[in-house]
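Proteins fold reproducibly. Take a sample protein:
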Amino acid sequence: CVDTAAKFGSQTQDLNISLTAVGLLWNLSDYFYQNQESLRNAIIAEPKILPDLPGYKEMCTFDKLWMCLFSRLGDLCLDSRPATRKSAGQTLFSTIAAHGSLLQTQTWQAVLWQVLFPLLDKVSLESGLASTEKKF
């Protein structure tokens, strides 16, 4: 579900579809928060629905769900369209602020090292390559 919404967010045919998909990722974060127990039970019953995160095999399954969401929002923060980047960035940091207290310490390390620091590196690199000329 998270991957599907993120793919809609990264499509380039229609900006409104991308922005709506980013909004849907925010709605999913609220759904995850409000339905923690039922989601934990569903993940325990079917653990293969979540990807393995390199170096974080010990991470609890519910935190893997959050990592998937944060990773996809981080990817959308690098979209070529400014509106999508801005929306994804606001959603990523709002989601972390609203629901970050649910994460275990090990997951926080993964968020920093697998999502936020790589995102900052890519933004720094891209901003250095960006044109300084204004387009009208």
About this structure: The radius of gyration is 16 Å. The first helix runs from residue 2 to 10.
